[in-house]
Amino acid sequence: MYDRARALDLIDRAIDADPYCPLCGAPTEIAEADGVIVLRCRAAAAPNGVLGRVSAAVLPHLRSRVVDLSDGVAA
Known about the structure:
By secondary structure, this protein is of the alpha+beta class. About 35% of the residues lie in helices and about 30% in strands. The strands form 2 sheets. Strands 2-3-4 form a 3-stranded antiparallel β-sheet. A two-stranded parallel sheet has the order 1-5. A hairpin with a 2-residue loop joins β2 and β3. It is elongated. The chain starts with a strand and ends with a strand.
């Protein structure tokens, strides 16, 4: 279980550690997916054009788990 301060600290550290995708250089963003807070490549999350969609599907853009919300977050 995470308290809110710990969860925010983990999110801040993740963004500080990887502000850009190492593959394409696009900025990263925090998102929620299936009860997990992830740090992901912004370009891969919303690809533009055919090449962008192929790149997002095939290449290993940044996507890392930051906080698993199924563990619960205390007030």
